[in-house]
């Protein structure tokens, strides 16, 4: 059997393995096993599961080295499986649950239909992702948990690898609940911040910044970045924003930022940058999710970001690798 055959059949098997991972994440099996080994019956009782069905999933999870049998029908959590614990520093539980969420699962399963006609099957059924989340509170909480977990290594990379102007005002555009802004302000005690997002998000951001003791250094503003963004900023951060929109909309957002910034200001775009090669890369996986979920959303290459900046009166500056597949792309007035 050739390598390509192994790769193809491996991809087929990955669907079943992901289903087992999703079951482990949804049922919280790693949390239940955190204190020690359990029999299948004990684990099923704690997880609210059907023991005979669970036993079959545990067999697959053990083959994936996420669990280890220590006695007949008794399993313990392995070091690798510990990454599915809710309290793990590098927990992937939220990411797995998000990918298995009903709408996301539908989107990826309908990718062939999306590719046939060029329009997202998800968008046709559910509308824009953020409208879908607004109508589905459970999915919205899951998405928030996923985004918060995903942001942790990126935010740490941001404050460790990029030098901010020490007394700058940073405007976090579509800053969500404020976790990135809070991290930047803690790392730069003379900076001030403004977070702008839709009105239904601002109360959460205000609460986060207050809990972080930053109410005196950070302002929260309700707004729509297609209509405009707060002026007077020295640094404008767009974290995981542009990849949600097609080129025309992305340029409109960037133009609004360009018009609002102080002279000598800069734009920081936190996104995955696609490489110009055929090597496997996180961005290529994420780009297919963007294709499946958004009409026009996409991950982009360095040259594609440079082209967007040029249309908005900006020029590509420094590109800083942040780890976890993401980069910080700096743009300055052209």
TrEMBL record:
Q: Which residues form the signal peptide?
A: none
The Gene Ontology biological process annotation of the record reads:
methylation
Q: Which InterPro entries match?
A: COMT-like, COMT_C, COMT_dimerisation, SAM-dependent_MTases_sf, WH-like_DNA-bd_sf, WH_DNA-bd_sf
The superkingdom listed in its UniProt entry is: Bacteria
Listed A to Z, the keywords are: Methyltransferase, S-adenosyl-L-methionine, Transferase
Q: Which Pfam families match?
A: Dimerisation (PF08100), Methyltransf_2 (PF00891)
Task: Cite the O-methyltransferase C-terminal domain residue spans from the record.
Answer: 111-314
Gene3D superfamilies, sorted: 1.10.287.1350, Vaccinia Virus protein VP39, Winged helix-like DNA-binding domain superfamily/Winged helix DNA-binding domain
Keyword Ribonucleoprotein listed: no
MF terms from GO for this chain are: O-methyltransferase activity; protein dimerization activity
Taking every annotated instance into account, which residue ranges of this chain make up the domain O-methyltransferase dimerisation?
Answer: 19-68
Return the protein name: Hydroxyneurosporene methyltransferase
């Amino acid at each position: 059997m050739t390598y390509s055959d192994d790769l193809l059949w491996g991809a087929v098997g990955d669907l079943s393995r992901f289903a087992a991972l999703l079951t482990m994440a949804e049922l919280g099996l790693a949390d239940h096993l955190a204190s020690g080994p359990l029999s299948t019956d004990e684990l099923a009782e704690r997880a609210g599961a059907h023991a005979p069905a669970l036993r079959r999933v545990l067999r697959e999870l053990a083959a994936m080295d996420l669990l280890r049998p220590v006695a007949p029908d008794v399993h313990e959590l392995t070091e690798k499986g510990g990454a599915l614990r809710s309290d793990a520093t590098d927990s992937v539980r939220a990411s797995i649950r998000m990918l298995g969420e009903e709408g996301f699962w539908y989107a990826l399963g309908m990718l062939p239909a999306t590719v046939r006609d060029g329009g997202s099957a998800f968008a046709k059924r559910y509308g824009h992702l953020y409208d879908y989340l607004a109508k589905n509170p459970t999915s919205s909480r899951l998405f928030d948990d996923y985004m918060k977990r995903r942001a942790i290594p990126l935010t740490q990379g941001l404050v460790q690898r990029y030098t901010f102007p020490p007394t700058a005002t940073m405007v976090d555009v579509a800053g969500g609940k404020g976790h990135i802004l809070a991290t930047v302000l803690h790392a730069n005690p003379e900076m001030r911040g403004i977070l702008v997002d839709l009105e239904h998000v601002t109360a959460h951001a205000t609460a986060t910044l207050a809990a972080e003791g930053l109410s005196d250094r950070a302002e929260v503003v309700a707004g729509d970045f297609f209509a405009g963004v707060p002026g007077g900023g020295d640094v404008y951060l767009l974290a995981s924003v542009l990849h949600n929109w097609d080129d025309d909309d992305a340029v409109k957002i960037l133009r609004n930022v360009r018009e609002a910034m102080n002279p000598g200001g800069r734009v920081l775009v936190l996104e995955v940058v696609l490489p110009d090669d055929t090597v496997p890369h996180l961005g290529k996986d994420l780009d297919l999710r963007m294709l499946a979920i958004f009409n026009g959303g996409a991950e982009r290459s360095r040259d594609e970001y440079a082209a967007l900046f040029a249309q908005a009166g900006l020029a590509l500056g420094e590109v800083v690798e942040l780890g976890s597949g993401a980069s910080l792309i700096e743009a300055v007035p052209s």
